[in-house]
Write a structure and sequence with these properties.
The protein has 125 residues and is of the alpha/beta class. The chain has one domain (9-121). The chain is 40% helix and 11% strand. It has a 3-stranded parallel sheet, covered by helices on one side. Helix 2 (54-61) packs antiparallel against helix 3 and helix 3 (67-78) packs across helix 5. The longest helix is centred in the C-terminal third of the chain and has 16 residues, at 81-96.
Length: 125
């Protein structure tokens, strides 16, 4: 039996201009990106329940934060009922068409977006 492709999810920086194949544009940062006007962001959703908590974000960007531990703690946060429900909704939307996760992170591959991207690719709970 052929495998079905996973949801079409990609990660882009919020500062990059929108592209026609972005599909649903979802801001996944808790704070609004610096220097960006809301009218220029072209976002469709901003589900703050899917963003790392303020405490976790501060810990990660402090002197103690290690990426692997950050990922583990963020996965725990995504298991909380409100976040899990938001994740399921976004997973359903991704099954319908492309979703672009938007972040202001300078290196999205070492940010929460890589964890979120993996979580969206995993089957729902």
């Amino acid at each position: 039996m052929p495998s079905t492709p996973g949801p079409a999810v990609r990660v882009r920086r919020i500062y990059d201009p929108p592209e026609p194949d972005d599909g649903l544009r979802v801001l996944v940062d808790r704070l609004w990106p610096r220097g960006l006007k809301k009218i220029d962001a072209h976002i469709d959703e901003w589900p703050k329940a899917l963003t790392p908590s303020t405490e976790l974000r501060r810990w990660y960007h402090g002197s103690e934060g290690a990426y692997e531990e950050f990922c583990r703690r963020y996965e725990d946060e995504l298991a909380v009922p409100e976040a899990a429900a938001a994740l399921d909704r976004l997973r359903d939307r991704a099954a319908e068409g492309p979703v672009t996760l938007l972040t202001a992170a300078k290196d999205p591959s070492r940010s929460h977006t890589s964890v979120l991207e993996r979580a969206l690719a995993a089957p729902g709970r």
